[in-house]
Design a protein that fits this description.
The protein is α/β, with parallel strands linked by helices. The protein contains 10 helices and 10 strands. The chain binds adenosine-5'-diphosphate and magnesium ion (MG).
């Protein structure tokens, strides 16, 4: 469904991605692991058109989307939750979720259904629906950012280190969100440094180093033999 073929990306003169190839199938959860600074976020930014690949292709459902504007990608069904979350701190939880619903081609009834589904899966968001986003804990903000992305009814969500800096209890919650999305048939490209969690929720995993994919394997294989994990992630 989503394919990166031999993607090269630069920031100015710095050559960051050196021929990255990654694939995500419909409804598939795919992990992207690697130490700090290896190019994981840049890979997601390249998919989202926030930085243009100098070489290679990004293909979604057969269309070359390299360099498309983010709102066009959202329309195609690609949602992105960046590392810094970017929720609206002064808007309430409800208003934050509404921003994902202010789009054409969706009935009021469908909007209500989508909100209800999110509130059912994440009761804390219902409890806090009239609270300003900025007053939520880090984990709750992450949950809100993902819930807002879900309002777009995406086919795939790109998650950039959703568990970073969260307490274990919130990591479990984020894990639960990934399970909910997976059950709904949404594909996920999950960038993480949390190895155990990634190996548990993903079907396949790519390991990056220095702007390249050095290894990819079924998550099950990496769970059973952690040699590659030790080699590239040092854990
Ligand atoms: N906007 C930028 N301009 C220049 N260099 C950047 C920029 N963003 C990231 N980099 C560099 O690109 C490399 C990869 O960064 P990034 O994709 O954020 O890695 P990761 O997400 O794996 O930690 C790093 O060396 C980082 O310093
Ligand atoms: Mg990053």
């Amino acid at each position: 469904m989503l394919t990166l073929e031999n993607v090269h990306t630069f920031y100015g003169k710095s050559h960051i991605l050196h021929g990255v190839s990654v694939e995500v199938g419909p409804g598939e959860v795919v992990g992207l692991l690697g130490r700090n600074g290896v190019g994981k976020s840049t890979t997601l930014k390249t998919i989202m058109g926030l930085v243009r690949p100098s070489q290679g292709r990004v293909v979604f459902e057969g269309r070359d989307i390299g360099g498309w504007a983010p709102h066009r990608l959202a329309h195609l069904g690609i949602a992105y939750v960046p590392e810094d979350r970017r929720i609206f701190r002064l808007l309430t939880v409800y208003e934050n979720l509404r921003t994902g619903l202010d789009r054409g081609g969706i009935t009021e009834q469908r909007k209500t259904e989508l909100l209800e589904k999110v509130y059912e899966n994440f009761p804390v968001l219902r409890e806090r629906r009239n609270q300003a986003g900025g007053t939520l804990s880090g984990g709750e903000q992450q949950m809100l950012a993902i819930a807002r992305a879900m309002m777009l009814e995406p086919k795939i969500i790109l998650l950039d280190e959703p568990t970073e800096g969260l307490m274990p209890r919130m990591v479990t919650q984020i894990r639960h969100i990934v399970d909910v999305l997976h059950r709904e048939g949404v594909a996920i490209l999950l960038v993480e440094q949390n190895v155990p969690m990634t190996l548990e929720v993903s079907r396949r995993v790519y390991i990056m180093e220095k702007g390249q994919v050095r290894h990819h394997a079924p998550a099950e294989a990496l769970r059973e033999d952690q040699t590659m994990i030790h080699q590239y992630l040092g854990v």
